[in-house]
What does this fold into?
Amino acid sequence: MLYELLAVFAGGGIGAVTRYLMTLGAGRLFGMTYVGTFAVNIIGCFAIGYILGLTLNKTALLPQHLKLFITVGFLGGLTTFSTFNYEVFSFLKDGKIIHGAGYMLLSCLLGLLFTLAGYRLSLTS
It folds into this structure.
């Protein structure tokens, strides 16, 4: 149990720092930090789909602590539903209804598609 807890702890820290750096980078590159949130959420969807496919189809038997490090830890720290909702709320609060609705719809649809893409890619590995 201790190894699993340490794996989640370490992965979460690395994932959170990665998210922070990607958000800063998106702010500098595009002038909009929500692009970074969008990117980490889509990347996280792809990665979780890939790991899910590998483990469900037993093409890769990951040790439990490594699976927890990646999925619960790293991807949990990397992706962020609360920040996503805050950004949608900010668009709506500022009267940018089209931006808010578009961001929400695009995030959900692409998130699902990238989860499916990661899963399907894992089946070919």
Remarks:
- Residues 2-124 form one domain.
